[in-house]
Structures are given as structure tokens and as C-alpha cells.
Sequence to fold (191 residues):
Amino acid sequence: MPAISSHLDDLPGTTLRKDYANVSAIDKVDDVVRRMLSLEMASQREKVKMKKEQLAAKVRRNPNDCGSAEVQVAHLTAMIRTLKEHLHMHPKDKVNLTRMMIAIDRRTVLLKYLRNNHYDIFENTCKQLEIEYSPPPQYRRKITRRAVVKKELRAMVHKEKQKLRALERLKQMEKQDGIREQAQPKEETPG
Fold:
């Protein structure tokens, strides 16, 4: 199976984990220890946390903002991208598929709120997070088997009506041509 690119690939491996980033003594430690405390040796969960923070930092209003709609969208986006990669590798994982669909629905609700109330923030969020938003249709009708059969029947009846009308028009045209021929006297040519 070909290796797919991960959304976590843009995180530099030399970056220290979140817990050790602000420690002052980190400059004095050995390179091996520094490598162990960096993202290169971090677990997937820690990398996803860093990615969430990275995406949230792009759309954050101020440094203390951690619950606004755009930050929630950033967190959900990181989660959705991680689950998409996981589902690419494990397509039969129904639990994570359900989690991803729930996250997509929550993100859509938040984006709809931003779009309706704060359009400039919505545009900035979509641009920064590289999200392509398409609004859902206003009305969705559940298609049942009965409705499909009814629709096909209506289409067949409509076609039959068109055929009958075409035959009637053809007969009328033939009738009119016959009347015209009778009205015009035939000229006999000498021969």
C-alpha cells in the first residue's frame, strides 16, 4: 500500500513537546535527551495535540481564546483529518467512521453559525484552515422505494401521452394535406 501524506508531516520533528517547551534547563541537556523530548519520539496522540494547537493558533482571537467557534472548528478539523488518515488505513473501522461523521456535523454547525453571524471571521477561518465549505441543501427528502416507483410510473405515463399526442398531430397534418390536395385542381400535362 503506498504511503499517504499525513497532515502531521508539516510539524517539525525537532520541536519540543508541549510539556517541555517552556522548561529553561532544556538547553543544557544532551542531544539524546532532547531528541526523546521532541516530537520525533512523540506518540501519535501528542502529535495530534500539537497540530490542534498549531491550527488553533492560526485562528485564535487572543492568546487566552480557547473556546470560540473558530478555535473549536480548528480542533475539529485536526480531529477529522487524523480520523480520515486512520480510516484510509483501516476502512472497516466503523466506530471511528461514526466519530468522524459526528465531528464533521459539529464542524458544519459551527461553520454555519460563523457564516450567518460573523462572515469575515468565517472567511478567515476557512482560508487559514484550508476548509472548503459548501452549505447543505435547505430541504432534503428521504427517498423511499415507493417514491422511486411512483416517479418512474409518472415518467412512463408522460412518455405514452407524448406518443399519443404526436400520433394525433400526425393524423391532423395528414388530414390537412388531404384537404389541400382536394382543393387544388390537378393540371394535366399534354403528353
